[in-house]
Design goal:
By secondary structure, this protein is an alpha+beta fold. It has 3 helices and 22 strands. The protein has helices at residues 2-25, 108-136, 142-167; strands at 43-44, 51-53, 56-71, 74-78, 83-88, 95-96, 101-105, 170-172, 177-182, 189-190, 195-200, 205-212, 224-229, 236-243, 253-260, 271-287, 292-294, 297-303, 308-313, 315-320, 323-328, 335-337. The strands form 4 sheets. Strands 1, 2, 17, 18, 19 and 22 form a 6-stranded antiparallel sheet that branches.
Length: 347
Amino acid sequence: MKRGRRVVTFVGTGLGLVLVLLWVSGVLRDRIGPGRVEHPPGFALPPDAEIVDVGEAPLPRATDVPGTAVSERQVRMRSRIHAPVVRLAVSAGQTVAEGEVLAELDDRDLQEAVRAAQAVVAQAQASYDRTRLLHERQAVTDQALEEAESRFRASRAQADQAEVMLSYARIASPLDGQVADTYVEAGDLVGPGQELLTLFDPGRMRVEAHLPMRLAPHLQVGDTLAVHLDGRPEPVAGEVTEIAGAVDEVTRTRRIKVRLGDDTPVLPGTYGRVRVPEPPRPGIRIPETAVLRSGQLELVQVATPENRVVRRLVRTGLRDEGLVEILSGLRGGERILAVARPEGSGP
């Protein structure tokens, strides 16, 4: 009897497990067939979102041409004599006035040469004066007088030359300007042609750039261009003063000179970019605030007719006055969010 109950219990338990498995597997229920659940792309358009209609219009174009700032008056001061440097009176960055002594060289030998030349002049002049008196008394010939005068003039020329050489021992500034750099120290022995220091006029600066040939027809002397200089957040205005009449045979460019305003403080050698305008072309510009940046990617948020917002990659161009040019990724007639916001964010 007990054995029969165990069998019934075992069979009942087995049937229960079978029923549970059949239920879990869905055999005893209506099953949903395989398929796709439709889900609209993007996120819902926020009710407070500001929408901008994208349209094409003629856009001004410009190309930035790299250049370098230089002074219109830059002087390399070199030694004209062979002598030690006695004193270097200035340092790099110092402002100097015209005529101010910049450096002094040892002039003892030159002073001795001047004294010797002056002694020769005095002797030649005495000889000339004596010969002239004798000539007046007709005691010497015209030829003797001419020879005495010639010796006197030659000695005086030699004395003048010695004094000029002596002046080379004092290096004076030829302009009101600033010291760009110095290349010697007191005690250094310098020779003729050796560079001592460089001066420039900070009030007469310009940017020199090499203009591609395709831009040359759009530029002429007297045009005003925007110049972006390293270290200055805003561009400055510059006037085109010169366009080379020949094409560089290596770079196939023409050199241009753009003069900066007198109130533009810039050091020689500063990197600059000259913005050269080109004829306008059809294009798209949108507010910079509409561009969302994610690492190296730039995206805009497009509003669809279903009031959804989807992100789209774009490639941007020039930026100006809060607007940015869209080179690819958008077309006229579309709508975008004027202010980009993270997906699903609220007001």
